[in-house]
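Page 42, continued from yesterday. The earlier attempt failed because a stray header line got pasted into the input along with the sequence. Redoing it now with the clean sequence only.
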Amino acid sequence: MTTTAPNNTTARRYDIDWLRVLATFIVLFFHSARYFDHMGWHVKNPERSTELMVLVGFLAQWMMPLFFVLSAMSSVFVLRRRSAARYLSDRVLRLLVPFVLGTFVVLIPLQVWIERVTNGDFDGGFWAFYPHYFDGWYAFGGNFAWMGLHLWYLQFLFLFSLITVPLFRAILNASSFTKKLASICQKPGGILLLSLPVIAVELWVNLDPGGIGMRDFGGWSLATYLVFFIIGFVLATHDGYRIACERHRIPALVVGILLMVPELHWAWAEGAFFSDYALRHITHALNAWLWLVAILGFASRYLTKPNAFLSYANEGVLPFYVLHQTVIVFLGFLMLDWAAAIFIKFSVLILLSFFVISASYHFFIRPLGPVRWLFGMKKP
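This time it went through. Structure tokens are written below.
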């Protein structure tokens, strides 16, 4: 029996709120694991872990694409109620203000100082280093982190929001098309139709891995993130897409798990699992999309009820994200000489970081109006 989906996209989607909170918490695990993996990072534990390398690879496959999809889905509800000018002014306050705060003041300079000290490139305290933070461009031999390190997400989310406004307005006006596409996506396997743009852009950008295909931002090309962002917007334009994700959630999860084996092959073996260029990047893109479908589908099915915790945590998502990596890097720096098993250090790093971030949010950021503004929060 075919279900006709009402276009009730004006109702609040608590599954999106829940996923936003859970994804932000998962970022804490991701960057804590980066302290122990075999790749370069701002500060590294003396002993490395292949198991945590696998965790990093697994989360990188869908974590940041999920952030861009959720951000775009929220944009639908805003653009239905507000003008483009109001939408962009809100993005300035929510994204650029905390980005500038973190990049220029303390949070990001502290990470760069720790990186320079641990690599032997600077010998001195943080305040002695701070004037040198503005010497040259980070990643090009200098110190100034123009992309905000982990705050690159805020920077490019703002840019994506800016350049996609005309397209998003056009999509909202093309309700008959999005309704028809939602109907197709509800058919068996139909949700895979939305993976085709991701596959196409991955096949294109990886022809130039040092340029447009550069994966220094969370494991994906910026062009691919833009595609995820646009698809995320489409997903929230009609309730049929939510139903489509629910219907495909179990097969998407099963196939996603199977495809994760070749995806994580690099974590414990040299080289890619598939030698063929097209097959390697098609499976990479498809696997990410299947995980997104599964996550969105299970959330739509089971995470539909609000409560006091969700209201409290959802308000703190942005401050938590802005703070989290700086806290992890700083605590990891203090733990360098601690001779403990990796599992113990990993657990302590997560728990201490969560406590410091949560306490900072609850006692310092949330109750103070000017500080709320600096961290992109709305008035209480």
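Notes: Residues 1-6 have pLDDT under 50 and may be disordered.
Reminder to self: strip header lines before submitting.
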